[in-house]
Write a structure and sequence with these properties.
Elements (H helix, E strand, L loop, with lengths): L9 E4 L5 E4 L2 E2 L5 H12 L4 E3 H9 L7 H15 L3 H4 E4 L2 E4 L7 H17 L3 H13 L11 H28 L7 H10 L4 H13 L3 H19 L5 H11 L37 H13 L6 E7 L5 H12 L6 E6 L12 H11 L11 H13 L3 E8 L2 H4 L10 E6 L10 E5 L4 H12 L1 H6 L1 H10 L4 H13 L5 H8 L5 H4 L1 E2 L2 E2 H10 L3 H10 L7 E2 H8 L3 H13 L4 E4 L2 E3 L2 H12 L12 H28 L24 H24 L3 H17 L3 H18 L2 H18 L2 H17 L3 H17 L3 H18 L2 H18 L2 H18 L2 H17 L3 H15 L5 H17 L3 H13 L7 H17 L3 H18 L2 H17 L3 H18 L6
Parallel strand pairs: 7-10, 7-11, 8-9, 9-10
Antiparallel strand pairs: 1-2, 2-3, 4-6, 5-6, 12-13, 14-16, 15-16
Helix pairs in contact: 1-2, 1-3, 2-3, 2-7, 5-6, 6-7, 7-9, 8-9, 9-10, 9-11, 10-11, 12-13, 14-15, 17-19, 17-20, 19-21, 24-27, 25-26, 25-28, 28-29, 28-30, 29-30, 29-31, 30-31, 30-32, 31-32, 32-33, 32-34, 33-34, 34-35, 34-36, 35-36, 36-37, 36-38, 37-38, 38-39, 39-40, 40-41, 40-42, 42-43, ...
Length: 1014
């Protein structure tokens, strides 16, 4: 546990003057504010401390007005100055969290040492407890910040000083019990001088003096303390000290030092025994891990055992790595190289006790039975004495946890200890940790090739890559798959790949002889407590690639912090992975295993068979979906103000904990991070036939899909909701789902399909007397008809929609229809009417804070103003729209806004700015999934290039716009594209073709009733 800043990265020393080290380099973090903020965070690692707590720690009650700003600035500078500071100090909610490991902070190591001493004392391991206390106390250099930290840190420092003195007293007790007496007297006097009121220390000094044959001095010490206490406090010594005084006066035999056993002498083996397993000839990959391990051994200082703890999920190759390293280091440790399976995760076996392990190791060294003590503590003591005198490698394989390993370690020693475990051994002090993940793809392919043979592997390179992917790049799975292929020469790699694609049976395929991925995973699973096993099964129901803590809380029916504890435990057991703080993921094969546990032998658990496991999973899935609905409700309310909340009396409202969704930024970030998980949640609900959840959740999820331009997913999700609503037989939910599907069809240019959906939805709304639904669906129908150039049919429907929405007070919905009406008027050439409609849309949107709808209104108003020739006013409107548009517009709509901005700039003579916006409009994203916007943007930019005399480029843009518009029947932009092509061709000298295109455009304009100057 001693300080070792050379062998590690960033380390913090706060027990005394503050120090930050990066390897051998001292890091200067800043001034007093920086140090106090950082020390306060390090006092409570892994906990979120709000800014006001940090302000109190820095300034007490005299904080300046800018205190919160100074704290935030200090944190930002700390992140810059400390290596990897951005990952070390993270922002969470109202404050900050220090993501340090226990070995990085001396206080954490001090606390761990005290904990280990308590556990060792309770287990009767006094010598180990004393060692743990010594190493913990060696970390102490003084009070926090050397006592200069202000009242908050001074209070924390006082509490830590009390813990230190208690540990000092415990150590003296252990040393007295071990037979030390005279050698303690000087140390005790030193501590008493600094802490004269500690009666425990006084009693220990009296006892040490008495046992050293200095009875008179012991009695004199009592007289001194009695006089001091009376003078200082007006009280006498306590009962314990008084009783000790009486016992010394009577020369009580109970005070005699306990008899000490010298213990067995170390055993000296003959020769250089080695029980290491053979090193794999086809060992593949892990070069970086091997280099790291060997580098630690080369550079590590100190006199204690060199400990390397290798952790990873079952089948990740921990033992193979440890054996490879042990063989490479064997010549440096000539006395012995021992391998012992501790049976932490072995089928039908109990983990070895420390006593049994010590006996096994002694026998490996050739110790005769009569030299091995009968009691466990004696065997452990003999092993540790033997270990202390030898230079050897000890490979403790398959450990269940730290407590199984710790009693087998001795200090000082020149032994190298390699420990492998499926659990992260965080409490194994001074250990260098090597955590194994899955193999990189190229190493996975090389491993398959090494086992299968290069000829067969190189004959099917794509299939081998897919095999590695389906095996999750897990070494055990790769070896089993390759071994199966080697045993079946008629099988192609592709054939096995096809068999592995069946997720329900994949684990069964990865089974060869005594080796099985499923058995390996089951051992880890069965090593969990009943509560953790249940949690593991329930987490397997999560449909997304990653699990965040609040969703986990819903699945587990726990608060988020408690759920995070479970997730962190499973992470330490390598049953979960983590690629980002706060987000957890299953390895593909572990997910299959978890789902198989819930599935049992029933291939369709969603239908339910009444079994307890099925009911457990069903309740968890329902909670997860209720959570998803509650969270998306809250997020969408913030991002899309004025939207209509779906009311459904039969649905249970989520009453559990939600993630922080207090601002639009928080809501936007949460939806972006959870988008794919939410899509998967809808599919999960459909599989479980929770059809009401399907419809209601889809109604929320389509909002962010629309915002991000994921229109095909918008449509597919809506189709799923329609199917679920029909299966449920709920006409209200069906109307809602049909309406959303119609909107998706409009955005994708599937106008005829959209009309069919909106007409059915409208009929349902009328039959249900659903006025809001009637307004929505007649408005959508107007949109679709307008896109087809059927303005005369579209106009009354849009007007009817607006009238009903105004009557219902649905401002957001009314603003939406007003922009549609404005767009219709503009396309029809009725620009004054377009201005009126768009102006009201902007006013309504602003009144309810619907920024997304305000941007749409401003854009349509600019189009109308351009139509009237008011280019300056249009430019100002577009400037306002651009300022508001960030994060509230889809890529396709943003492209249109930029294209219109380019047109206004060009008409105002701002050529450079126009070119920049035009290029951005064309390059912002792939518009092929939004054909209406693709056509409009192409035509706008094409006309600009025609005005500039770049006719070939203009022709190309108009042709592209024509393909997009004609492909979906978007008539007005189809006509505009024809007109633009005619103009460009005329300038290029192709007059006949130009005339043909112009005539076609004019006929289309006439059919739609659009004025000739369009």
């Amino acid at each position: 546990m001693g300080e070792d800043i050379e062998a590690h990265g960033v380390r913090f020393r706060i027990l005394g003057s503050f120090e930050c080290w990066d390897g051998q380099e001292r890091v200067r973090v800043g001034g007093p504010v920086h140090e106090r903020v950082l020390v306060t965070l390090l006092l409570e690692p892994q906990r979120v401390l709000p800014v006001f707590r940090l302000v109190e720690a820095v300034w007490d009650e005299n904080a300046p007005a800018t205190a919160a700003h100074q704290v935030r600035k200090a944190v930002a500078e700390l992140r810059q100055r400390i290596p990897d500071g951005r990952n070390l100090i993270v922002t969470e909610g109202p404050g900050y969290r220090a993501l340090t490991t226990p070995e990085q902070v001396d206080l954490s190591r001090f606390t761990d040492g005290l904990k280990q001493a308590r556990e060792a004392t309770a287990a009767g391991q006094s010598a180990y407890a004393a060692t743990a206390l010594r190493e913990a106390l060696d970390l102490w250099r003084g009070p926090l910040l050397s006592g200069s930290g202000g009242s908050v840190l001074c209070a924390a420092s006082a509490a830590l000083e009390e813990r230190r003195l208690t540990a000092v007293e415990q150590l003296f007790d252990l040393r007295l019990a071990a037979g030390e007496n005279g050698e303690l007297i000087g140390d005790l006097r030193e501590f008493i001088e600094a802490n004269p009121l500690r009666e425990t220390l006084r009693g220990q000094l009296m006892l040490a003096l008495f046992r050293s044959g200095r009875q008179a001095e012991a009695l004199e010490e009592f007289a001194k303390v009695r006089e001091f206490l009376v003078d200082e406090l007006g009280i006498g010594p306590g009962d314990a000290l008084t009783d000790l005084h009486h016992a010394i006066l009577q020369n009580s035999p109970e005070l005699a030092a306990p008899p000490q056993s010298a213990g067995p002498a170390p055993f000296s083996p003959e020769g250089s025994p080695s029980t290491l397993p053979y090193d794999l000839r086809d060992f593949t990959g892990r070069e970086e891990e091997v280099r790291e391990l060997l580098g630690f051994v080369d550079e590590a200082p100190g006199t204690g055992p060199l400990i390397v703890a290798i952790d990873g999920m079952g089948g990740s190759g921990k033992t193979s790595l440890a054996v490879r390293a042990a063989h490479q280091l064997a010549d440096r440790y000539p006395d012995a190289q021992l391998h012992l399976d501790l049976r932490g995760f072995t089928p039908s076996e109990q983990p070895l006790t420390a006593g049994a392990a010590a006996e096994a190791l002694l026998r490996m060294l050739g110790a005769p039975g009569e030299r091995i003590p009968d009691d466990a503590e004696g065997r452990i003591a003999l092993w540790r004495r033997t270990m202390s005198s030898r230079r050897m490698i000890l490979l403790l394989d398959n450990a269940v946890d730290e407590s199984q390993v710790r009693p087998l370690l001795a200090s000082p020693t020149q032994t190298l200890v390699l420990v492998t475990s499926r659990a992260l051994l965080v409490d194994l002090d001074a250990a260098h940790t090597v955590s194994l993940g899955v193999m990189p793809p190229h190493d996975s392919v090389a491993l398959v090739e090494g086992v299968l043979g290069s000829t067969r592997a190189r004959a099917e390179p794509e299939a081998v890559a897919q095999l590695a992917e389906l095996c999750g790049h897990l070494p055990l799975a790769l070896r089993i798959a390759a071994a199966r292929l080697r045993k079946r020469p008629r099988w192609t790699v592709r054939y096995l790949v096809d068999r592995l694609r069946d997720d329900a049976h994949r684990l069964a395929e990865l089974n060869s002889g005594e080796r099985s991925v499923e058995v390996t995973l089951r051992l880890s699973y069965e090593g969990l407590s009943a509560e953790k096993r249940e949690a593991f099964r329930l987490l397997g129901q999560h449909p997304g690639a990653e699990i965040e803590v609040y969703a986990a809380g819903a699945l587990l029916d726990k608060q988020a912090r408690d759920a995070e504890d479970v997730l962190e435990y499973l992470l330490d057991m390598h049953l979960l992975q983590q690629h980002e703080t706060g987000r957890y993921a299953f390895h593909d094969l572990v997910r299959s295993f978890a789902q198989n546990l819930s599935r049992g032998n029933d291939p369709a658990p969603e239908r339910g068979d009444g079994s307890p496991g099925d009911e457990e999973a069903a309740r968890a899935v329902r909670r997860l979906l209720d959570f998803a609905l509650g969270a998306t409700d809250a997020a969408c309310d913030l991002l899309f103000p004025g939207r209509a909340r779906i009311r459904n009396g039969e649905h249970h409202r989520w009453e559990g904990e939600l993630p922080p969704l207090n601002t639009p930024d928080e809501a936007r970030l949460w939806l972006e991070r959870e988008q794919n998980s939410l899509l998967a949640a809808v599919s999960l609900a459909y599989r479980w036939e929770l059809d009401r959840h399907v419809g209601l959740l889809t109604a929320n999820v389509v909002f962010p899909l629309d915002l991000r331009g994921r229109l095909e997913e918008f449509r597919e999700l809506s189709r799923t909701a329609v199917a679920a609503s029909r299966r449920l037989g709920d006409p209200a939910l069906l109307r809602l789902s049909l309406s959303n599907l119609a909107v998706a069809c409009w955005k994708l240019g599937r106008f005829e399909e959209g009309i069919e959906m909106s007409e059915e939805a409208f009929a349902l709304a009328v039959s249900l007397a659903d006025r809001r639904g009637e307004a929505k669906d007649t408005g959508v129908l107007g949109l679709l008809l307008s896109a087809l150039g059927r303005y005369a049919e579209a106009l009354p429907r849009l007007e009817r929609s607006i009238a009903i929405k105004r009557e219902l007070g649905a401002e957001r919905a009314e603003a939406e229809s007003l922009t549609s009406l404005s767009n219709l008027y503009a396309e029809w050439g009725r620009f004054p009417d377009a201005v009126e409609a768009a102006t009201r849309a902007v006013r309504l949107s602003r009144s309810i804070g619907a920024v997304d709808k305000e941007v749409e209104g401003l854009t349509d108003l600019a189009v109308a103003r351009l139509g009237l020739g008011a280019v300056d006013e249009a430019a100002d409107l577009l400037r306002r729209a651009r300022k508001l548009a960030l994060d509230v517009m889809s890529p396709a709509d943003m492209s249109l806004l930029l294209a219109l901005s380019a047109e206004t700039a060009d008409r105002l003579g701002e050529s450079a700015q126009a070119s920049e916006w035009a290029d951005s409009a064309l390059q912002l994203g792939d518009l092929s999934g939004a054909p209406m916007r693709e056509a409009a943007v192409g035509n706008i930019v094409g006309r600009m290039h025609t005005r500039r005399g770049r006719y070939a480029l203009a022709l190309e843009l108009h042709q592209q716009a024509h393909r997009a518009a004609s492909g979906v029947g978007y008539r007005v932009e189809e006509a505009r594209a024809l007109a633009g092509m005619g103009e460009a061709l005329a300038h290029l000298g192709e007059h006949e073709a130009a005339r043909t295109h112009r005539d076609s455009a004019q006929r289309a304009f006439d059919a739609m009733g659009i004025p000739k100057d369009e």
